[in-house]
Amino acid sequence: MLSQHGDDARLLAGGQSLVPTMTARLARPTVLIDLNRIENAALPTISAGRLRVPPLMRHADFERLSANGPLSTILAELSGHIGHLPIRMRGTFCGALAHADPAAEWCLASVVLGAELLVRSMTRGVRNIEAADFFESMMDTTLADDEMIIEAQIPLLPAATRYGFSEICRRSGDYALASTLVVYQRDEDEMTKVRLGVGGVEATPRRIPEAEAMLERREPTRQLFREVADLVASAVDPVSDLAADADYRRELTRAAVSRALDRSFR
């Protein structure tokens, strides 16, 4: 159906992004394709060291994720920050990625955690896309009109993994004005394999390699964390909109990075 109707069609899973967009007349598809009739499309699996997220796995499902290790803990915490309970019960992980709101928790997580997305076209088959290459701009991705995300694959994390997450919103359930996720492993007194990314600040979520390099093989201290927060604040190119101007978002970025790093050391 998607191949037949192309840009005139939209896929409907949870509808928590699509329906408000249609209500605001920002999207006016002539065809809605309901994915909820697809069987066995809501149950995650684990294989080859990866959590495989199907297209109908809801946000709330991550709070009950039975996978072992730090990855399930991270995803469960992030899912609790998404909107309100009715949204978490209906919205889907893959749908959030396809919508590509730069403030979305799953978009940031997919980039920082090194997720890989499997997308399918009826005519061209399946292709794999790294999450870092998937988001092109605000609410714009590399998905073609006839493609659908059929699975997101997230690498499992070692038991020694530590993480910190922080997002700043005007009120609970609102979109984040700035958010940070940091993940690393503890090697005695040092941090290794550091991944740090920000969301809600620029047009797409992204990792900050300068900050990762500054933290790599360093002993975690509050002074170091403050220096990294300053570095990230100077490295980003914040957007300005009705919610916050660029200067304010830069300061929020500084606070979000500092808080996420502090929480990783609990």
Question: What can you tell me about this protein's structure?
Answer:
This protein is an alpha+beta fold and 266 residues long. The protein has helices spanning 2-5, 18-23, 70-79, 85-90, 93-99, 105-112, 131-134, 209-215, 222-235, 246-264, and strands spanning 9-12, 31-34, 45-47, 50-53, 116-121, 125-130, 135-137, 140-141, 147-155, 161-168, 178-187, 190-199, 206-207. It has a five-stranded antiparallel beta sheet with strand order 3-4-9-5-6. The chain has a four-stranded antiparallel beta sheet with strand order 10-11-12-13, with helices on both faces. It has a two-stranded parallel ribbon with strand order 1-2. A hairpin with a 6-residue loop joins strand 12 and strand 13. Helix 8 packs antiparallel against helix 9 and helix 9 runs antiparallel to helix 10 (246-264). The termini are far apart.
The percent range for helix content is 25-40%
Compute the CA-based radius of gyration.
18 Å
Strand order of the largest sheet: 3-4-9-5-6
CATH architecture of the largest domain: 2-Layer Sandwich
**Any idea what the shape is?**
globular
Mean pLDDT across every amino acid position:
95
- The span between the termini is 49 Å
